[in-house]
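agent> Task received from the user: take the single chain below, predict its 3D structure, and emit structure tokens. No templates, no multimer pairing.
agent> Plan: (1) validate residues, (2) run structure prediction, (3) serialize to tokens, (4) report one or two observations.
agent> Step 1 OK, no nonstandard residues flagged.
tool_call: predict_structure(input=
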Amino acid sequence: MAAAEPKSSTLSSLQADAPIISHYPGRAAELAEEIDRLRGAMTETFLREHSLIADSVVELSRQLDRKINEYMKVVRLSRE
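)
tool_result: status=success, residues=80
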């Protein structure tokens, strides 16, 4: 029996959550893209600043937290 192929690690969070967010596909997709953008910006800023507590890194982290919370709210509402 052949082993199942592992899922690609390049799947975005949107693809992984597609059935859950089907009630809000436009908004959830928009939020997922914004979350990915903020993650990238925060990583780049951390690498440039060499500090997790630099004001610019902390501000991006706060923005990212707000977007993740908003995304989770959309997902939760789609389950109701």
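agent> Step 4: summary for the user.
The CA atoms of residues 14 and 32 lie 6 Å apart.
agent> Done.
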